[in-house]
What we know:
The protein folds into 2 domains: 2-121, Four Helix Bundle (Hemerythrin (Met), subunit A); 155-227, Winged helix-like DNA-binding domain superfamily/Winged helix DNA-binding domain (Arc Repressor Mutant, subunit A, Orthogonal Bundle), CATH 1.10.10.10. It has 13 helices and no strands. It has helices at residues 2-11, 13-22, 31-42, 46-54, 57-64, 74-91, 100-121, 144-147, 154-157, 160-172, 177-187, 197-204, 208-227. The chain is globular and about 50 Å long.
Amino acid sequence: MFSTIMGIVLANVLFLALHLESRILPDPLTPKQEKEEFEKYSKGDSAARDRLIKHNLRLVAHVVKKYYQGPIENDDLMSIGTIGLIKAVQSFSFDKSVRFSTYAAKCIDNEVLMAMRKIKQTENTVYLEESADPDNKSNGKMTLKDSIQDSFQLGEYCEYHDLKTDMLKAVLDKLDARQRQVIVMRYGLFGNIPQTQQQVCEKLDISRSYVSRIEKKAIEILRESLTG
């Protein structure tokens, strides 16, 4: 189950990069549209599953905002909540009397609470940034990390955001230079501002239809790489 969920997350990494960074979230589906998408998904249409995830990201934002003052960063809350949403889409039966939004909100909430419980379990963990002198005679200048005779920087290696950036760069290496340029511009990756196809075609001096073809081909390559 976990590998399946992570596969879906990776397959949608560009979409999430765009919408979680720009905060531009798509409108919810109407009840009729939602039912149609679940019917398609039940018949094996993975694109319907993706649409259900995308159009319910507003629900994720709504549920996780009550945890904004907690121990988890806001962006990470969105990522954790999205995993809960993916689980909800995968396990929901539209024949149930309960509305999907009610069911999904509970799954999102449970995912965040589970992550917070894991953090609580590590509250007594000793961190390498803590002072190596319990009596503070060294004025807190010497940390446990400084006292370890090892050039390997564990904290830097495990930095979450660096890991995400490295993963994205590795994925983009599957593209040629023009495809990579269009994807970075369109989806605002690496801190850039997302741009429309019209803006991209004007800056690169190519037609909008050509930008659309490049983008479509690049996403196909990325999906094959990530899901393969």
